[in-house]
Design goal:
The protein has four domains: about 5-185 and about 280-285, no CATH class; about 190-270, Immunoglobulin-like; about 305-415, Immunoglobulins (Immunoglobulin-like, Sandwich), CATH 2.60.40.10; about 420-470, no CATH class. Helix content is about 10%, strand content about 35%. The protein contains five helices and 29 strands. A hairpin with a 2-residue loop joins strand 1 (about 5-10) and strand 2 (about 15).
Length: about 475
């Protein structure tokens, strides 16, 4: 039955469908009310056994839900215009969590063809937008309505959600609980992220993972995403469509074909605050909200390279050491690192490139492929730092460069300790000269060299040449 009486016998006039006033001149030019999916629940608090319609209306060929409970429902040709953010029937703000839930419900179920689902959505919308509050009771027999005309009652009657819930069958009650839980888990705003593969991809395909999460930080499933690429291909094409799985993820094979490959993702996403459609030329008819996507979420992901920055410092003072040669290699400490354009990072000798630290002890390399494991290896000690340098096990540091980021590595070394000769008092019995050192032994290449009447102590590369003449007896 298209036209249902909600409030029987009130003020001698009938309210129809909970939404349309009988014999209202404003509706004379409107076409008949066209209902979509949904069902009638009741009887109404006013005593009408036909109950209240919970579900969609079809206006201008589009499925809509009404959000001014008890006002007249729109005819199928009622014109509307975009309005402001959705508020309650009483003009107050809807709590953010409920507003976000409404946006999601409209996106996910706005065009549903299932009667139970449409009725559940309509019940929640009325519960949140026309709640029972002081001055707005849900019972039309309340004394507050005594002496008022039908229009005033329509404007001030609330939706008694508890009453209508008690009149629902078991299937509809279960559907209301399911839809409400779904909205709380997947409410707006949504966020989309893209994760690159763990291994570098230089002119070869790599698996990239999209991750869609809700405002409640939960994965959002079953959402179509359109992807287009620039300077790259996706699964061998320039564009494709994917749908998020139960984990809110979708994977694609991306192959860079240029220096700055990008991916652009686009999907329908719920607004944080839903917006209403306001009726034209008929202020007494209900506002409506539309089903379907409310906004387009679009993000561009640039497949970026990375860099490495190395700091070489004195282990005691913490100051930078300049003039230190560092070789940049892959994670195996042998092969060359990879640049972002797919080339090997080589020096003039065709070996992995060597960089040198500046005055502040810093050296850096940019435009490297990412992600990629990088190692820096000291090839020779700086002046005054050779005593603790082991050519067979030189200082090194490794890490993984992430896209768009600079990997920070650090190396340190101990400064040489000066070798100070021990002075033998005059008249001593031994002519031998000894030396004090920070280490217990000297490398085998260091030693005592005799030159005629003196003894020479060589204290390391670049060290101090010490001589002492023998005393004559």
């Amino acid at each position: 039955m298209r036209l249902r009486k909600i409030l029987a016998g009130i003020l001698g006039a009938g309210l129809v469908s909970g939404l349309t006033l009988v014999a209202t001149p404003q509706l004379a030019s409107a076409a008949g009310i066209d209902e979509g999916a949904g069902m009638s629940v009741g009887p109404t608090p006013g005593g009408n056994p036909a109950g209240t319609w919970l579900g969609q209306y079809v206006v201008g060929g589009k499925k809509v839900f009404c959000v001014d409970y008890a006002l007249p429902a729109p005819g199928s040709d009622q014109p509307y215009k975009p309005g402001d953010a959705l508020k309650t029937k009483w003009g107050t703000a809807i709590p953010k969590s409920q507003a976000s839930d409404i946006s999601y419900l409209l996106l996910k179920y706005g065009n549903t063809k299932d009667n139970l689902t449409a009725a559940a959505v309509a019940h929640l919308l009325h519960s949140w937008t026309a709640p029972v509050v002081k001055g707005h009771p849900g019972d039309p027999h309340d004394p507050i309505f005594k002496g008022h005309d039908t229009k005033w009652i329509q404007q001030n009657l609330a939706y008694d959600s508890g009453y209508y819930a008690s009149k629902m069958n078991a299937s509809l009650k279960q559907k209301v609980a399911e839809v409400k839980k779904d909205a709380a888990a997947n409410r707006a705003p949504w966020d989309l992220q893209l994760t690159p593969p763990e291994q570098p991809q230089i002119n070869k395909p790599g698996t990239w993972t999209l991750k869609l999460t809700s405002g409640a930080k939960n994965p959002v499933s079953d959402v179509p995403i359109s992807l287009t690429s620039s300077q790259a291909t996706i699964d061998g094409a320039k564009s494709t469509k994917v749908t998020t799985d139960a984990n809110g993820t979708a994977q694609v094979k991306v192959t860079p074909t240029g220096a700055k490959p990008t991916l652009q993702a686009s999907l329908n996403s719920p607004n944080a605050l839903p917006r209403v459609q306001e009726p034209l030329n008929n202020p007494n008819v209900q506002k409506v909200v539309l089903g379907g996507g409310e906004q387009n979420l679009s993000k561009t992901f640039e497949i970026q390279g990375g860099g490495v920055k190395v700091t070489k410092t004195d282990s005691e003072s913490g100051k930078g050491i300049s003039g230190v040669s560092l070789r940049i290699t892959g994670g195996d400490k042998k092969s060359p690192a990879q640049t972002f354009d797919g080339k090997e990072l080589l020096g003039a000798d065709k070996q992995p490139a060597v960089v040198q630290t500046g005055d502040n002890g810093l050296a850096s390399v940019d435009d490297l492929a990412a992600p990629q494991q990088i190692c820096v290896i000291e090839t020779a000690p700086a002046k005054d730092y050779d005593q603790s340098y082991d050519a067979k096990n030189p200082p090194s540091a490794c890490g993984t460069i992430q896209p768009g980021k600079t990997l920070a590595l650090s190396l340190s070394n101990k400064k040489n300790k000066a070798i100070v000769p021990v002075v033998i008092p005059a008249g001593g019995s031994s002519p031998t000269v000894t030396a004090a050192s920070a280490t217990s032994t000297l490398p085998s290449s260091y030693g005592l060299l005799g030159f005629g009447g003196g003894i020479v102590v060589l204290a390391g590369v670049g060290g101090v040449l010490l001589t002492r003449k023998l005393r004559r007896r």
